[in-house]
Design goal:
Length: 379
Amino acid sequence: MKNLWQTTLAAVLLCASVSWASAAEPIKIGSVLTVTGPASFLGDPELKTLQMYVEDLNAKGGVKGRKLELIHYDTGGNAKDAVNFVKRLIKNDNVDLIVGGTTTGDTLAVIPDVEKEGIPFISLAGAVEIIEPVKKWVFKTPHTDRMAVAKIYEDLRKRGLTKVAIITGDGGFDKSGREQLLKLAPQYGVTLVADESYGNKDTDMTAQLTKIRSSDAQAIINFGLGQAPAIVTKNIKQLGITLPLYQSHGVASKTFIDLAGDAAEGVRLPAAALVVAEQLPDADPQKPVLLAYKNKYEAKHGPVSTFGGHAYDGLMIAVAAIQRAGGTDKAKVRDEIEKTQGFIGTGGVFNMTPQDHMGLTVDAFKLVEIRNGSWKIVQ
């Protein structure tokens, strides 16, 4: 009888020990971001945001008593490195989910492994093909390139401008944006009178812009990211071209304004409301969220960008899903991410469904114009 009691007690203590150990294990958040290289102005604020909020959440006790552990690798914008790092996160680091993929190229490259291994993945990249068609394990927080094109074309229509020249880079985001520019043009009554391209490492685009100047374009759209759009913007001014210039949401950071200098004056682009948070009406449900993130980030790191905001949204959506799932079971967390409803983030109010793994509408975008070196909402 005594031996039976001792055996039972030992079993209870063992179960309690295993349960406690499981509860104490950290929640491992994997991340692959472009912190160095041409797209570092995207990845750097993303990493700083993840680090800042993981630290903040841990200081508050973590998630259901479990601390968060951020495991990050810098791809430098190299898709092959992104694939290798994601495999390492899954196989060696045993992460519970992944928030990252700064660029479209990196994201698209890792999707096959994410889908094969069955791990929740929230991308911070822009192209619509990341989530269309829907992939079971893949989600994203930034607005899509299709939404950006629609927002630009809506403004062109309001201004009565129908003849448009486009110029795009050679990256994954750029190419996907060009595809959407071509695809949506007829829907908005836009005629593309010039279609030029450049390499994202090029340092002068005057040859392409000279061709555009000789066309009958009424406006120019440059779809790209990195330093190239700033070069395009400066070249346009140097050539004396005075046509309205639109950029994509890929340049929605103070870095673009600093790089383009005075040439950025008057440039319009779609952007998350984060860059114009103070200009929103007080009744806007996003305003307190935006100001809280903006103030926290800028107190520690300087000027905020929409890209760090995408990382905030991805992390908070993931944490909320883990809380609802009651743990880190990957299938349950995936299901809860897909059920995200009414989440107020920096990118908008997210309402995901099995058919929509982003959950934002085009109304989540604000059309902004650069005036006197800062962002202003275009009314």
